[in-house]
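Lecture notes, continued. The same structure-token format from the folding unit now serves as the input rather than the output. Read the line below as a description of shape only.
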């Protein structure tokens, strides 16, 4: 396994490693592997000079982070994987970047991603597809594919990504690392380029659950620059007993048989350790993905209106556009990719006067029903355990021309986003050398019990 935050800190304390040596080792790995994986869009060679011994007692001291390229790092490019922002330089740090810097972290670079976080494979990047480090012919998942690769392939200790419908957990599953989406509102989105504002949440990629918890504690909390954030986190009873719910709907259809067998084997392992497992029902599960697609596209349509090439980003030559309308059309036509355009068009349609009630309003009602299902479930159990993905990593190019097949990659992850719940992916096995991930979901603001359960499962599955 690649070094964890805790392991790196211990080696530095024992004088086995200097902080600069740690950064140089990651830079060396990036130089050796990035041509093959295309995980990093920019690399900060100056990072080795940014660690000082004065910061030794900080919680993230010695840790080296890669950052998804839709999170602003002051003075560095932030492209969101799009041609329209190819030369955009961030004027300030996102709140999560301020927080990890204050706690001693060093940022080594920005990672590849699906354009504006729209995709499930990191093939929709304007700067070329990223490749799974376990098999370079396979996708790493998306939209935070580059961040997942960075952690899995030894390019950094940890990474920050964003999760709108599974964009942390799904690539974490495909690349075999821990990936966590916090409760909506516990982590600031200030300085993060929006995709769908009622879903977007920043979270960590890490080698272990312990590291993910350390990072979550570092980045969470109230931020006056993001009105939905809160300091509220519910404290749970101190008990070693955890009741685990397994939703039967996740195992009925849409899941590959080999994935199903690995997850069932993982469930059997925790049962043999005396953990109570209860089959439960989430009756509106089948409506989760279409509900998410409608609301997400509607919010995309609204959020993408700002990217017109007028205030920042790509601008076409003056002699190409004779009117302001021509300028808008040319900037957006040339600067935005097919998937982004597809979602803008779908969202504009669902928000239009004739279809708003039939699609958007109805989807919001179903969203409420899905949240109620989750509330009912957490009256019976402490956490839910599900597959993270319905399939193994697929071949590059296999689904890029079939948006519906691509979107089905998120069928097990979108429910947590619809309900605003915390969820985490854990590696739980392999099939033909490719990782399989299990997803743990907890109630709102129940990160404490999410991490407690995930640590138990991680230990059992590694035995």
């Amino acid at each position: 396994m690649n070094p964890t935050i805790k392991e790196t800190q211990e080696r530095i304390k024992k004088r086995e490693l200097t902080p600069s040596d740690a950064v140089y080792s990651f830079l060396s790995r990036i130089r050796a592997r990035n041509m093959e994986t295309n995980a990093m869009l920019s690399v900060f060679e100056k990072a080795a000079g940014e660690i000082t011994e004065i910061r030794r007692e900080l919680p993230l001291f010695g840790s080296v982070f890669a950052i998804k390229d839709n999170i602003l790092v002051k003075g560095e490019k932030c492209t969101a994987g799009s041609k329209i922002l190819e030369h955009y330089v961030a004027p300030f740090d996102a709140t999560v970047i301020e927080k990890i810097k204050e706690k001693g972290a060093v940022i080594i670079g920005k990672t590849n991603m699906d354009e504006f976080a729209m995709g499930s494979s990191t093939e929709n990047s304007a700067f070329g597809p990223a490749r799974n480090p376990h098999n370079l012919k396979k996708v790493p998942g998306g939209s935070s594919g580059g961040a997942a690769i960075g952690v899995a392939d030894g390019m950094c200790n940890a990474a920050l990504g964003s999760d709108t419908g599974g964009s942390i957990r799904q690539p974490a599953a495909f690349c075999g690392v821990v990936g966590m989406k916090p409760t909506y509102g516990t982590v600031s989105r200030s300085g993060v380029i929006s995709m769908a504002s009622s879903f977007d949440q920043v979270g960590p990629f890490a080698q272990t659950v312990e590291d993910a918890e350390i990072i979550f504690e570092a980045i969470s909390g109230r931020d006056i620059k993001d009105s939905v954030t809160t300091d509220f986190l519910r404290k749970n009873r101190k008990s070693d007993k955890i009741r685990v719910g397994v939703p039967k709907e996740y195992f009925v259809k849409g899941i590959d048989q080999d994935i199903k067998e690995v997850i069932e084997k993982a469930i059997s392992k925790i049962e043999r350790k005396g953990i109570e497992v209860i089959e439960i029902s989430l009756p509106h599960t089948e409506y989760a993905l279409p509900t998410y697609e409608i609301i997400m596209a509607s919010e995309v349509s609204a959020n993408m209106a700002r990217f017109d090439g007028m205030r920042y980003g790509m601008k076409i030559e003056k002699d190409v556009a004779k009117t302001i309308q021509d300028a808008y059309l040319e900037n957006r036509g040339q600067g935005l990719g097919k998937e982004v355009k597809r979602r803008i068009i779908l969202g504009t349609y669902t928000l239009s006067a004739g279809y708003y009630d039939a699609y958007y309003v109805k989807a919001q009602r179903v969203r409420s029903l899905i949240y109620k299902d989750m509330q009912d479930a957490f009256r019976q159990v402490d956490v839910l355990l599900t597959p993270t993905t319905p399939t193994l990593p697929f071949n590059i190019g296999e689904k890029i021309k079939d948006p519906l097949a691509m979107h089905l990659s998120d069928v097990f992850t979108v429910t947590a986003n619809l309900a605003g719940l915390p969820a985490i992916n854990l590696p739980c096995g392999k099939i033909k050398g490719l990782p399989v991930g299990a997803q743990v979901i907890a109630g709102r603001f129940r990160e404490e019990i999410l991490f407690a359960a995930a640590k138990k499962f991680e230990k059992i599955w590694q035995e």
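Point for the exam: DSSP finds 14 helices and eleven strands in the chain.
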